C-alpha cells in the first residue's frame, strides 16, 4: 500500500470517528526469532523486551500488566527462573513482576542486571567474576537485590561489559563491580571487585549523565559534555591516542570543546554523539565499524561523515562489531559487521529504528538496549487500519458469505481494488452477498486489503489464489503462490500442481513440478496422482520425460 493510500484512508476513518490521530512507531519484537512461537495475543501485551545470549537465544519481556517473562536456553541461569532448564515457552519471573524496569543490560556469561523505577538494582546469571555484585562467585539462578553501597542510592541506568557491571545513580555517581583484568572497574588495580564500589578518581565531584560498556572497558559522559574512559585499550577504544590500559577514568582530551551527550560501545569500538548531531568514533575497525571508509583502527576520536544530516542517536552493543545511528528526519544508518559483510561507511537503510539494524544484521542478533514498546493508544497508520478491519463500529459496508458478516469500509476498498472501485461506484448497497467464494477465503481477501498480508494456511491459499485470479489481483496472486510453496508436501504436490495449472500461476506450476520430480517415487504413489486429470497427467509425463526423470 502506498503512503498516500494510508493517509487517505486514515483521514477517512479519523473524520468518521472524530478521533485524534496519534502516530508513533511501535517496535515489532517479531523481528527477533526467539519470539516467533509467541501467539499474537501475547505479542500484543509486550511493552518492554530484551534479546541476549551467544546466539540471541534468550529473551526477557515485560507485559502491559508489568509481569516479567523469560524464555530461551537459560545458560548459567540467566533467565532468572530458579533453575537451569531451557524453555521454549515463556515463564514468569515472579520476583520482578510489578518492579517497573527502567534499565536493563547483560554480559556474555551471560549475566543480567536491571534497575527499577524505585532505583533498586537486581542481578542474576553468570557470576564467575563477581559480576552480580553479591560478594561471591556463585551463579545466581533468581534475581537478587544488589545492596552493598547502593541501599541509600537510586540507580537510573546500568551497563554491562562481558563480565563486569557499572551503575549510574541520580546523584551522577558511577559504581562498578566484577571482572577487572584490564582496569574496567576503575578501582586503580586489576583485582576483581566483588561488590559495588564507587568509581571516583577523576570522576570525584563530577556529575555523570550517561554510561556504556565495551567488552572490557567502561565509558562515562558528564553533564558538561566531557567523556571519560577506563579499562582495556589495546584497540584504542578509550580514545586517548594510545593503546595502554587504564585502571582509572581518563578524560578524552581530543574532544576538548566538544559537547558529548551520548556514548555507545561495541565489542572494541566506541561511538559518541554531540549536541550538534555529529558522530565521533574510535577503537577497533577491522569490520569498518568506525564508519571511516577504511578498516584502520583509530586511537583518537574521528568524526564520521554523515552527509551533513543531524544525528539524534548512536547505537552499538558490546557483543558485536555493528554500528547504527538515527537522523533527525528518522532515517537509520548502519555500518560495521553486517551479516558477515564489512560495511566501512554509513549505509542508509529502510529501517525506522536502530533496533531493526541489530535484529536483522548484527551477529549475534541481540538488542543493544532495553526495547520499549508503545501503548496500544498510539498506533501507526497501518496498525490502525488493521485494527479497524471487520469492526462493525464504524464500517459502512458488510459482506454476507456463508451466512456470516464481514464489516469493511467502502473508501478503503475503492482505493485498494479496481474490482470494488467499479462495483461500489454502481451501487449504494450497504450489504453484498457473495456466493462464489467461501467465508474463509473471502475474509482473507478483505483482510489483505487492510494489511497487505495474507492470513491463511497453505492448503487454504488455493481458494484465495482462485479469487486473486478472478479479481486480477496480481500481487495477491504472487503472495498466494509463496504461501502455497511453503506448504507443499509429497501428499499434496499433485493437488497444488493442478491448481497452479488451472489458475495459470506459472511460477507456482514450475515449483510444484520440480518438487514432484525430486520426490517422484513418493508422489506417484499418492491418491492425488492416481486421480490426476488425464490431460494434466499426459503433460506431466511428457515434461518429466524431457527432464530425464524416467532414465535408469
Automatic annotation (TrEMBL):
The keyword Isomerase does not apply. InterPro entries: BACK, BTB/POZ_dom, RCC1/BLIP-II, Reg_chr_condens, Signaling_Regulatory_Domain, SKP1/BTB/POZ_sf. Keywords: Repeat. Pfam families: BACK, BTB, RCC1. SUPFAM superfamilies: POZ domain (SSF54695), RCC1/BLIP-II (SSF50985). RCC repeats lie at residues 66-117, 119-171, 172-224, 225-276, 277-328. Residues 395-458 form the BTB domain. This is RCC1 and BTB domain-containing protein 2-like. The gene is rcbtb2.
Amino acid at each position: 500500500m502506498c503512503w498516500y493510500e494510508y493517509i487517505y484512508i486514515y483521514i477517512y476513518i479519523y473524520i468518521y470517528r472524530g478521533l485524534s490521530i496519534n502516530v508513533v512507531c511501535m517496535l515489532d519484537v517479531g523481528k527477533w526469532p526467539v519470539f516467533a512461537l509467541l501467539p499474537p495475543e501475547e505479542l500484543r501485551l509486550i511493552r518492554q523486551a530484551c534479546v541476549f545470549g551467544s546466539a540471541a537465544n534468550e529473551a526477557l519481556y515485560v507485559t502491559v500488566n508489568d509481569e516479567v517473562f523469560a524464555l530461551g536456553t537459560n545458560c548459567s541461569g540467566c533467565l532468572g527462573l530458579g533453575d537451569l532448564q531451557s524453555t521454549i515457552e515463556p515463564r514468569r519471573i515472579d520476583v520482578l513482576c510489578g518492579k517497573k524496569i527502567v534499565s536493563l543490560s547483560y554480559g556474555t556469561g551471560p549475566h543480567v542486571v536491571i534497575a527499577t523505577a524505585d532505583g533498586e538494582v537486581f542481578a542474576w546469571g553468570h557470576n564467575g567474576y563477581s559480576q552480580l555484585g553479591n560478594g561471591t562467585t556463585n551463579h545466581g539462578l533468581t534475581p537478587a537485590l544488589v545492596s552493598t553501597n547502593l541501599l541509600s542510592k537510586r540507580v537510573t541506568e546500568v551497563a554491562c561489559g562481558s563480565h563486569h557491571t557499572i551503575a549510574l545513580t541520580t546523584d551522577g555517581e558511577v559504581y562498578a563491580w566484577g571482572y577487572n583484568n584490564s582496569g574496567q572497574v576503575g578501582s586503580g588495580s586489576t583485582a576483581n571487585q566483588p561488590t559495588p564500589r564507587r568509581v571516583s578518581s577523576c570522576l570525584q565531584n563530577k556529575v555523570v549523565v550517561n554510561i556504556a560498556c565495551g567488552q572490557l572497558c567502561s565509558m562515562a559522559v558528564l553533564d558538561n559534555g566531557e567523556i571519560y574512559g577506563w579499562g582495556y585499550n589495546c584497540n584504542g577504544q578509550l580514545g586517548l591516542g594510545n593503546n595502554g590500559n587504564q585502571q582509572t577514568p581518563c578524560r578524552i582530551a581530543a574532544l576538548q570543546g566538544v559537547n558529548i551527550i551520548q556514548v555507545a560501545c561495541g565489542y572494541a569500538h566506541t561511538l559518541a554523539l554531540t549536541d550538534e548531531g555529529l558522530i565521533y568514533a574510535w577503537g577497533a575497525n577491522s569490520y569498518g565499524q568506525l564508519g571511516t571508509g577504511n578498516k584502520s583502527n583509530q586511537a583518537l576520536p574521528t568524526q564520521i561523515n554523515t552527509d551533513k544530516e543531524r544525528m539524534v542517536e548512536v547505537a552499538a552493543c558490546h557483543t558485536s562489531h555493528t554500528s547504527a545511528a538515527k537522523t533527525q528526519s528518522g532515517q537509520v544508518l548502519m555500518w560495521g559487521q553486517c551479516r558477515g559483510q564489512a560495511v566501512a561507511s554509513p549505509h542508509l537503510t529502510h529501517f525506522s529504528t536502530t533496533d531493526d539494524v541489530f535484529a536483522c544484521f548484527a551477529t549475534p542478533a541481540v538488542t543493544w538496549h532495553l526495547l520499549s514498546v508503545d501503548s496500544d493508544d498510539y498506533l501507526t497508520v497501518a496498525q490502525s487500519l488493521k485494527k479497524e478491519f471487520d469492526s462493525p463500529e464504524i464500517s459502512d459496508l458488510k459482506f454476507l458469505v456463508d451466512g456470516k458478516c464481514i464489516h469493511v469500509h467502502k473508501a478503503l476498498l475503492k482505493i485498494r481494488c479496481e474490482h470494488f472501485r467499479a462495483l461500489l461506484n454502481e451501487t449504494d448497497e450497504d450489504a453484498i452477498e457473495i456466493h462464489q467464494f467461501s467465508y474463509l477465503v473471502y475474509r482473507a481477501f478483505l483482510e489483505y486489503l487492510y494489511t497487505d498480508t495474507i492470513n491463511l494456511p497453505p492448503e487454504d491459499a488455493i481458494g484465495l489464489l482462485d479469487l486473486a485470479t478472478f479479481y486480477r489481483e496480481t500481487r495477491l496472486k504472487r503472495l498466494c503462490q509463496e504461501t502455497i510453496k511453503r506448504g507443499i508436501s509429497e501428499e499434496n504436490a499433485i493437488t497444488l500442481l493442478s491448481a497452479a495449472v488451472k489458475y495459470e500461476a506459472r511460477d507456482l506450476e514450475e515449483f510444484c513440478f520440480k518438487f514432484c520430480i525430486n520426490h517422484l517415487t513418493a508422489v506417484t504413489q499418492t491418491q492425488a496422482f492416481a486421480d490426476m486429470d488425464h490431460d494434466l497427467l499426459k503433460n506431466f509425463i511428457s515434461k518429466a520425460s524431457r527432464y530425464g526423470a524416467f532414465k535408469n
